[in-house]
Amino acid sequence: MAHRKLVSLIVACFIVLFAATASAEDKAGPLEVGGKLGFGVSFGDLAGVSFVFSPEIGYALDGENAYLIFDPEIQAPAGDGAFFTIPATFQYDIELPVDGLYIYPRGSLGVSVFSGGGNPFFTVTPACGIKYQVLKQLHVGGEPIRFPIHVTDGAVFAQYEFLVSVGADLDP
Hints:
Blueprint: H1 2-19, E1 31-42, E2 48-60, E3 66-70, E4 73-77, E5 83-92, E6 94-95, E7 101-114, E8 121-135, E9 138-146, E10 149-152, E11 155-170
Antiparallel strand pairs: 1-2, 1-11, 2-3, 2-4, 3-5, 4-5, 5-7, 6-7, 7-8, 8-9, 8-10, 9-11, 10-11
């Protein structure tokens, strides 16, 4: 019985997904300001869990969906010190058939440093997220797929991060 309700819910979601179309008109303007909050899990020599915070500001280069973003990231692992990343990010919002719903692939290149010392890291971060325009000026979302890869002095380590976000879309 419970699986029938689940199937009905999934079918209803697909009907809603394909009943409407989103457009760039869902956004108030090309300027995006917001922040992300979540956790990261490191693998390898630096294994552990950390708190992650990332404020961001971006501008849609095409006026609608192709964003160049500055989104510094601060990670506070369970221990001493903090990890800071200064990246440049490209994100492309792909409109889904639900009004105001977008999925986005994004990629970042940057430099990371650990407050406890050591050499800087070159960081590459592929990610994929989803966001929903609650209002023309407000969106909420999350990045369930985010894998920062850090390289320094022949050493490589990776992370998985899960972040939720809130932001504003503005017309400057």
